[in-house]
Amino acid sequence: MSEHTVRIVVDGRELEVPKGELVIKAAQDNGTYIPRFCWHPRMKPVGMCRMCLVFIDSGRGPMLTTACTTPVADGMKVDTTDPAVKKAQEGILEFLLINHPLDCPVCDRGGECPLQDQTMAYGPGESRFVEEKRHFEKPIPISDLVMLDRERCILCARCTRFSEEVSGDPLIEFLDRGYHTEVNTFPDHPFRSYFSGNTVQICPVGALTATLYRFRARPWDLVAVESTCTHCTAGDRIVIQASQNEILRFLGVDAEATNQGWLSDKCRFGFGYINSDQRLTVPLIRDGDGFREATWGEALDLIAQRLGDVIRTSGPDAVAALGGARGTNEDAYALSKFMRTVVGSNNLDCRMDDTLDAEFLAATVDRALISDIDRAKTILVWGPDLKEEHPTLYLRVRRAAIGSVPGLVSSNSDAHLAAAAGATLVVVHPRATGLDPVADFKLTYRPGSGAELLAQLRAGEGRLAEVRAALAEGPVVALVGRTGSTEDPRLAEAVAAFVRTLPDAKILPLARRANTYGALDMGVAPTLLPGRVSISEETFTAWGDIPRKPGRDCRSILEGALAGDIQALLLVGADPVRDVPDGDLADRALDAVPFLVAVDLFLTDSAGRADVVLPADGFGEKEGTVTNLEGRVQKVNAIVPGAGQSRPDWSILDDLARRMGSSLGFGSAEAIAKEIAEVAPAYRGVTWDVLDWEARDGVVVPGGEGTQPLVYLPADTPGPIIKADLVLHSARTMYDDGVTMRHTPHLHRLAPGAALHVHPDDAARLGLGFRARVVGSSGSATLPVVTDPSLARGVVYVPFNQPGCPPLGSDPRVTVEPA
Amino acid sequence: MLTELLKGLAVTFRQMFRPRVTTRYPKEFRTKPQRFHGRHVLNRYPDGMEKCIGCELCAGACPARCIYVRGMDNPVDAPVSPGERYGFVYEINMLRCIFCGLCVEACPTEAITMTHLFEMSVTNRDDAIYTKNELLMRPDGTVPHMFDDDPYANYEELNTADGWLRATAPGGVAAYEGVKMWQGTQGPASWDPEPDQETRDA
Amino acid sequence: MGVGIAAPPNILTTTIEKAARWAATRSMFPATFGLACCAIEMMATGAAHYDLARFGMEVFRASPRQADLMIVAGRVSQKMAPVLRQVYDQMPDPKWVISMGACASTGGMFNNYALVQGVDEVVPVDVYVPGCPPGPQSLMHGILTLHRKIMEGEIHR
After folding, report:
1. Mean pLDDT of the residues in chain A
2. pLDDT in tens, A607-666
3. Which of A26-30, A168-172, A180-184, B138-142 shows the lowest per-residue confidence on average (mean pLDDT)?
4. Residue B56 and residue A217: Cβ atoms within 8 Å?
């Protein structure tokens, strides 16, 4: 027995369990299941439901005690099988069922309901209650995504605790007292939380149900497969459930390394686009202003012939490719190999000019893991609003900032005790963010002046002295990224360079789009080769003779197309017109390029201009791996067939290569994974077998010393300071007008909409009425005006990529006039 | 030898005077046992509401997986069935169905019952998939069939119920114990109530 | 359906075509293909209580050469499928197939690797008879449906 454990006896078995652990958890970990409704391993215990009553003898004789609120103590005796315990369980269940309606046949939870299951296992056979049950209006929509049926509620407080403790938007609460107690939202305040779907998943009865899943299927006709969400880059583990070849819901999986069971609503409900009837189902070839349907052979032959012509007449450098971040690593590898070996060009980029340097994202020095956030003393967030762009990371940082959860006590290590006090959180962002309420320090700055603030912070003088002192306490974890599309991408790197001067500091570079990290690791960047290898690295010989000169990045490709240097452009799951901050540039470039090919799920704004459009398989339709922002490689799995004739990207590229007289040599996605595991140094040995059987929570790459050839030191060049009377901040929100959201109607409705947010003083000064015209460096729009006192004076905010608003440009200088 | 021949023929001759046992289907129908499992029917309440609530328990209980049900929100202004949910799609593949009656047992609202009709032979397997159109009792209590021109079928059998119908304790309300619910339903759904607890226990 | 006449029906052969169809329905000789429980019902159909002799088809032929109707009564395993096909091929034209019961028609409740999921994967089926097993009256309804199909000369329903 070590100093961190105690001995207890559960049902006559002597156990050695960690000190401070709750009886219910200790028993469960050692094979004794104590029934419960209110206790959730990721939240504080409350002892609301009384279902976990067991005999606990701490020396004063056995007493019926709730196992979920009692920490273990040395010599404690627990009896879960005594007739009195059985009687207590039956009594509690009979009480819980007094007001629980018998509408299991129509309840979405029926079949997977803890109340059903535990009534069958521990409940009495009959109820003595013959009076009228409690009645409420049922069901009431408490938000666009969640329905509440108060009759079914057993008042376990899981949803209220989740929204208060975990997500930090306590919009659902207990009302009234005693017999009249009910869970509800406040009048006129819908349950508008980005995390509301989690309450549906943890509800032990069918009181909270999801509108999307409502009455769509029953548990027994669902098939399920575990996968990884690719809406953001955190790599949340999910279960995809489908019935009759239609994806019906996502559930969170409690993976300690990533999402710990929670999901954002975008991840949980953002699958409508997969089932959309707008999906491309056949290859399309341009015919005048429209398209005509074609066979795969015809479309691929045309592409092969046109690409061949361009390569012959203008050289391989006249061909470029954008995209690859939406697919799997296998797809990205195929694209990278296709461009390097078949075309012979380094002009490819998975970034849409809205994120950071490729080498910084892929191979920065001192890279942090997500779990480092839990152990940090100080957390610096200088990047996008985590709640909007990295929701599960937001939950992680928030939990670390407010201190750990007592129910989670699993070790008494020093690091854990330090974390329990809560980390010091420093948030730097031009605008109010979701983390502000739990931040110890919040710094704001005008877009364009970030370098100035960084210099002041580095000096640590005046009002920043306190912040600087906090940052001096390690371990420090810094989450750095581009706060908005008008910010210089070099600023984040300069912040990272500053962070490296702090004690015991780790850096988590943030990028938003799906599998950006995986695509970069597969070499879908002008300067990178698979496995975090620089393009100039001569030791990489697996692909034979490939061009070694760095190619063009996204911006340069678009400029080249405009200048006529790029003659053929491949868009692989890319929509530059909506995604590139300089939308005007992308717009003109796509019109200018002579031959445009789009591989996509939908006829997007960009794909609509293509000469050939090829339908691709989407999420849940293909198997593969993805890499999250800490470098964790995880599996995504297929559960439904693709739409129509769609194919996975790698198969399209392989076929195309063969028609161009070459070959990529792939037979299946798994074969590509094997090739990656051999060819890419950082991915050595990471095969599907390993991910499927040994490491379900993924493998962090690089696996060992020396397997990452490229180690990038962040450059300390924050970029120019741009001052102007009015500066623009434009950042993404969770729900926007991106192509997947646009075809997911339930969520697209929730997009905040295009608006010009401006400080009331500025609105008065500029004489703005209800609408105003904003002219940015690369686009303009007439938008409704919203006054927002939380903005600094002289800063206007326009959410990026909202319905009815084009990208306004990457320069912060902006003019606003009344319209 | 002649006596043997006559002996044998006498046996045959005797048979001529015994009653004929052959049922001359399709002119005559042999009386089927009360619990005969024939074609399914979806019942209605006397007020015309559908009994099916689309809960898919029948589909879950079906060992042949021949039932496909999809539920939907009941329209608030024109509800199809009592409660929140109704059976939006209801299909039975009669060729897969093994007529075991587990769906009838699983049904919490007595919505699906079996009739005595068995004439369902088809020349095209698509025609063996009975949808709500064919399964659901009409508001006047008659039951439709896949083919209304079958010269051999006895449509009267659609109005006979199997013996599996049983009354459930209605909603746990003590006052209704032993009272026959859903009275006056047409053909397929008419039965005696369950005895009350005391009678049952005695 | 040509019912034994190679040339398509025309004005000269209509009456004889009708006669041939009528003749075909009056004395079909089923090949015995009882594979499982359905066969018991098939036997019952041939016995006195239902008496298939009324349709002139009381003799179940043991040789496919002498039969023109195959009643597949029971589940067809993957190993039985080639045998089934061979028996069918050995039957002289014109010939018909009745798939009797759920297993023969679709695999029924045995949705597994061992069974053919519907005998129409192996031979062309004229009439499907639902039931598990179909009673003698159900089978007779199937036979009558087949008669009707032959007489009307087209796939009705």
Report:
1. 91
2. 999 999 999 999 999 999 999 999 999 999 999 999 999 999 999 999 999 999 999 989
3. B138-142
4. yes
| Length, in residues, of chain C | 157
Q: Say yes or no: C153 contacts chain B, CB-CB below 8 A.
A: no
Q: What is the mean pLDDT of residues A272-278?
A: 93
Do at least 3 CB pairs under 8 Å connect C with A? no
What's the whole-model pTM score? 0.89
Domain that holds residue B73: 33-165
Closest-CA distance, B172 to chain A, in angstroms, reads: 6
Residue A695: predicted pLDDT: 86
DSSP 8-state assignment for residue B195: P
Domain presence at residue B58: yes
Task: Count structural domains, chain B.
Answer: 1
CB neighbour burial string for A24-52, b if at least 16 within 10 angstroms, e if fewer: bbbbbeeebebbbbbbbbbbbbbbbbbbb
**Residue with token string 């605790």:** A161
Eight-state DSSP code of residue B129 = E
Provide ipTM, 2 decimals. 0.83
What residues in B contact A129, CB-CB < 8 Å? 172
Q: Give the nearest partner residue to B26 out of C108, C130, C144, using CB atoms.
A: C144
Tokens representing A705 are: 């010393």
Rounded Cα distance, B165 and B190, in Å: 8
Residues of chain A with pLDDT > 90, as a percent, come to: 78
Size of interface B-C (CB pairs under 8 A): 106
Between chains, do C48 and B22 touch, taking CB under 8 Å as contact? yes
In order of start, what are the domains of chain A with their CATH numbers? 5-81 (3.10.20.740), 133-275 (3.30.70.20), 284-354+515-700 (3.40.50.740), 360-509 (3.40.228.10), 727-818 (2.40.40.20)
Check if the beta carbon of residue A669 is closer than 8 Å to that of residue A592: no
* B24 found inside a domain: no
Q: Does C109 touch chain B (CB under 8 A)?
A: yes
CATH at B58: 3.30.70.3270
Task: Report percent pLDDT > 70 for chain A.
Answer: 98
B26 occurs within a structural domain: no
A398 touches A438 (CB < 8 A): yes
Instruction: Tell me which residue in B23, B97, B152 faces C144 most closely, judged by beta carbons.
Output: B152
Would you state the pLDDT for residue B69? 94
Considering CB atoms only, which of B26, B30, B94 is closest to C130? B94
What is the reported pLDDT for B172? 45
Nearest CB to C102 within list B98, B124, B152: B98
Q: Model confidence over A670-702: pLDDT tens digits?
A: 999 999 999 999 998 899 999 999 888 899 988
Task: Tell whether C121 lies on the interface with B, counting CB pairs under 8 A.
Answer: no
Give the minimum alpha-carbon distance from A477 to chain B in angstroms, rounded to a whole number. Answer: 48
- Find, among A1, A25, A16, the residue nearest to A408 by Cα: A25
